[in-house]
Amino acid sequence: METLRLVLLFVHVLGFAALLGGLLVQVREDTKVVNPVMRDGIGTAFLAGLLLVGVLESLGSPDHAKIGVKFAIGLVILVLVMANMRKPSIPQGLYFGLLVLTIANIAVAVFWSPVHA
Ligand code: HEM
């Protein structure tokens, strides 16, 4: 089970790294868009995150409050990305909102005490 947790965590990290990369690559661009890298990234991070919760439940009692916060932030990002996927451009405010939420979820993951003992 530990191997499965590590493989899912590996996929989870690749997912949100793609999301963050898809955002940062256009930080200096005047026109911001939701690109396929962001879509695939949040989709992968979200699915791997949910599967990770399942694995952690079987390994013990994970911190549900931390997972709840991460799930809520992840869901907002997922919905905003999917809803704006086909738009020729997105407002600067939405772009920076997605960037701040993504960085916030990394901060929650890293600075909030480990999700499982
Ligand atoms: C943009 C979205 C997300 C980002 C940036 C993100 C970031 C991270 C990071 C940096 C870690 C590693 C933390 C560490 O091991 O110290 C992590 C682990 C984890 N994430 Fe996420 N996450 C996101 C979405 C989600 C979602 C939606 C869920 C599901 C509810 C989730 C559940 C988890 C779990 C359970 C772990 C712990 C894995 C473990 O230690 O075994 N994450 N996440």
From TrEMBL:
Q: Kindly list the residue ranges recorded as spanning the membrane.
A: 6-25, 37-55, 67-83, 95-115
Does Transmembrane show up as a keyword for this record? yes
What keywords does the record list, in alphabetical order? Membrane, Transmembrane, Transmembrane helix
> Has keyword Transmembrane?
yes
Give the superkingdom in one word.
Bacteria
Protein name according to UniProt: Integral membrane protein
